[in-house]
Specification:
It is found in: Mitochondrion. Keywords: Methyltransferase, Mitochondrion, RNA-binding, rRNA processing, S-adenosyl-L-methionine, Transferase, Transit peptide. GO terms for molecular function: methyltransferase activity; mRNA (cytidine-5-)-methyltransferase activity; RNA binding; rRNA methyltransferase activity. By secondary structure, the protein is of the alpha/beta class. It has a domain of 249 residues: Vaccinia Virus protein VP39 (Rossmann fold, 3-Layer(aba) Sandwich). It contains 14 helices and 12 strands. The strands form 2 sheets. Strands 5, 6, 7, 8, 9, 10, 11 and 12 form an 8-stranded mixed β-sheet that branches. Strands 2-3-1-4 form a 4-stranded antiparallel β-sheet. Strand 6, helix 9 and strand 7 form a beta-alpha-beta unit. Helix 1 packs across helix 2 and helix 12 packs across helix 13. The structure holds S-adenosylmethionine.
């Protein structure tokens, strides 16, 4: 009532000043503006979409995944080996945080020396651990601290050490799993195809194994952030990184059969971000086509990544979505394209022993047909993180 009164007074004033033409123009403008106003926020559209699809995909597990996605996520502190790492590790241990990678390595050691009488017997599911001759087949030298199950303490922001470098990098701890699964070995040439803002690139460098590391991202703003991360964490004399800003889909033509290890950490619907943040949300109406084309882009990037891998080399595909259309289906699609269009064989490698190693820290989806999927749960609110390890055979 009050609003229509104000409208009438305003209209009368306008009529007096400028005649009926202007009023009509203003009203027309107002109507157009009102009809383009979004009915639902992007976060709400994302939740509706997930409710529809993930109920089918995850059944009874979906309500608990949903509430975890909407709750505060947990972080991990990736220790910067280039900085005063021993001091950092000591300080993190004082906070009662645990290095989940070191704990997994200890479990492998226990398997390697089972005859040691002081070693407790392993539970049957750990019998699939790697053989004693290859005690740690995953990327080495990575140390990441998390608070234990159910502990929702937060890490303080990273600090500059006496060496002038930041002491740790805060990330969703499950983001380290694709890098660990890549199994970088000393002297490897490595490609990080979609690298910005650079958490995984930093982890790859921290392995101390990369003879040469190519870090690429199509977005110049993301490669700028990547360079800032490198500047804050890595000494200037570490020079084996090359940063580029190209379309990763071209890599198969640019550098075919070149790299020992390739990480393909693709853009996706970033499920946690999509249900929480309006800013840069892929569920905005204006980004509908981009969202629909996402699986196609992901297949193209994975194909390019595998083409850039040497025969016998390894690529890891990863996303932070629960969607099987962006996960297993993409892996299956890329393998088919490689076989049919390029006569190249690539094969998914089993990661079930890897899953057993880290199951105290993360909740894995038990029935993922290809690769592994970390589910957000309240006792370990990491992820979602999907990763799949592929070996290029020919
Ligand atoms: C999930 S993010 C990568 C996160 C990064 N690996 C990290 O750990 O910090 C996906 C990235 O892919 C980039 N991207 C999107 N399309 C691309 C393309 N065609 N080629 C290369 N990068 C692309 C985006 O700019 C975005 O930075």
């Amino acid at each position: 009532m009050e609003a229509s009164l104000r409208l009438m007074v305003g209209a009368r004033r306008l009529l007096r000043r400028s005649g009926p033409g202007l009023i009509l123009r203003r009203l027309r403008h107002k109507k157009k503006w009102a009809s383009t106003e979004p009915k639902f926020s992007s976060t709400r559209l994302a939740l509706q979409n997930f409710d529809m699809n993930y109920k089918v995909q995850f059944g009874d597990l979906w309500p608990s995944i949903r509430v975890s996605l909407l709750s505060e996520q947990k972080y991990g502190a990736l220790v910067n080996n280039f900085s005063t790492w021993d001091k950092t590790a000591y300080e993190l241990e004082q906070l009662k945080a645990k290095d989940f990678v070191l704990e997994a390595q200890r479990r492998v050691q226990e398997k390697a020396f089972p005859e040691d009488p002081s070693t407790p017997a392993l539970p049957p599911e750990l019998e699939t651990l790697p053989s004693p001759r290859a005690p740690w087949p995953y990327s080495p030298n990575l140390h990441c601290y998390t608070f234990t199950r159910g502990d929702i303490s937060r890490f303080h922001p990273a600090r500059v050490s006496s060496l002038g470098l930041l002491d740790y990098y805060l990330m969703d701890a499950s983001s380290l799993l694709p890098v660990l699964a890549l199994g970088v070995q000393p002297g490897d040439t490595v490609l990080d195809l979609c690298a910005g803002p650079g958490g995984k690139t930093l982890a790859l460098l921290l392995t101390g194994c990369c003879r040469h590391l190519a870090a690429n991202d199509i977005s110049t703003s993301r490669t700028r952030r990547l360079k800032q991360v490198l500047h804050s964490y890595v000494p200037q004399d570490v020079s084996q990184v090359r940063v580029t800003s190209q379309d990763g889909r071209k890599w198969g033509d640019l550098e075919r059969s070149t790299y020992d290890r390739v990480l393909v950490d693709v853009p996706c619907t970033t499920d946690r971000h999509s249900v929480l943040e309006e800013d840069n949300n892929i569920f905005k109406r204006s980004r509908k086509v981009e969202r629909q084309m996402m699986p196609m882009l992901q297949v193209q990037l994975l194909v390019a990544g595998l083409l850039a891998t040497k025969p016998g080399g390894v690529a890891v595909y990863s996303t932070c979505t629960l969607s099987h259309l962006q996960n297993e289906y993409v892996v299956g699609g890329a393998i088919d394209i490689l076989a049919n269009q390029y006569q190249i064989d690539a094969q998914v490698e089993e990661l079930s022993s890897f899953r057993h190693l880290f199951q105290d820290t993360f909740s894995f989806f038990p029935s993922c047909p290809l690769g592994e999927l970390v589910l957000p749960v309240l006792w370990a609110n990491f992820g979602p993180m999907y990763f799949c390890r592929l070996r290029r055979l020919t």
